[in-house]
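Quick one, probably user error.
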């Protein structure tokens, strides 16, 4: 009789262990499902970006080139004015020094 009781106790413990394992697997399955949904949403977002953002790179490059040329011409004008202003400053400084002396 002791053997039967011991076997029943062992089987009862094993059943509880298996139930706990099953609960863990069910929880893990839910977690995996949630992560899979998140990854699918991320993939859809990336595909949308590829279709809508990246084809516009040529337009963006053209706009960049236009802006770059515009800024280069402004820089050239500023440098021209800088040279002229420097000459005027030197002239007025010399004029002031001459009057001072």
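Nope, works fine. Designed sequence:
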């Amino acid at each position: 009789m002791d053997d039967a009781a011991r076997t029943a106790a062992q089987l009862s413990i094993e059943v509880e262990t298996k139930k706990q394992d099953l609960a863990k697997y069910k929880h893990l399955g839910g977690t995996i499902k949630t992560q899979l949904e998140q990854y699918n949403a991320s993939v859809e977002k990336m595909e949308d970006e590829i279709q809508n953002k990246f084809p516009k790179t040529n337009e963006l490059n053209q706009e960049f080139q236009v802006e770059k040329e515009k800024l280069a011409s402004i820089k050239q004008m500023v440098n021209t004015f800088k040279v002229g202003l420097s000459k005027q400053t030197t002239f007025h400084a010399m004029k002031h020094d001459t009057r001072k002396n």
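The helical segments are 2-52, 57-100.
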